[in-house]
Amino acid sequence: MSVETKTLEALGRELGETIADCPEHTAFVDARKAVENDAEVQAQIREFEQLRHEFMVDREAGRADRQSLREVQDAQRELNTMPVMAEFLDAQDALQERLDAINQAVSEPLAVDFGGEAGGCCQD
To answer: Taken in order 32, 38, 39, 43, is the CA torsion positive or negative?
Structure first.
């Protein structure tokens, strides 16, 4: 089917639907739902976000120290090593790699970064 008989928007929609059906996207969606539905992970996320927020406030006020940074890093490490979260992060990385490859495939014939620059007018 040529571009004349199928609009570019329809091709884009088809690409989006195909991406949504790819194994990497499916694994990501499933892993995200698992994170959202795990009470222990959600509690750990809230704890990490609270520590990070307190650190950012302290940093802006000039009160942050290495110990508080270590506490934030330890909380993040603890969160990221929880099996459900680790699976989510792995799925997220795999999806990002796939999307980067798709972006490269679309960008090559355009000689522009389709996913990054094609929509912008003023790039630095």
So the answer is: negative
pTM of the model: 0.81
Overall domain count for the chain? 1
Token digits of residue 70:
């270590």
Count Cβ atoms below 10 Å from residue 105 Cβ, excluding itself.
Answer: 10
* Cβ-Cβ contacts under 8 Å for 23 (sequence gap 6 or more): none
Residue 39 to residue 83: CA distance in whole angstroms = 13
- For residue 38, the domain's CATH number is 1.20.1500.10
Is residue 110 included in any domain, yes or no?
Answer: no
Per-residue confidence in pLDDT tens, the chain, 124 aa? 555 667 989 999 999 999 999 999 999 999 999 999 999 999 999 999 999 999 999 999 999 999 999 999 999 999 999 999 999 999 999 999 999 999 999 999 988 888 876 555 554 4
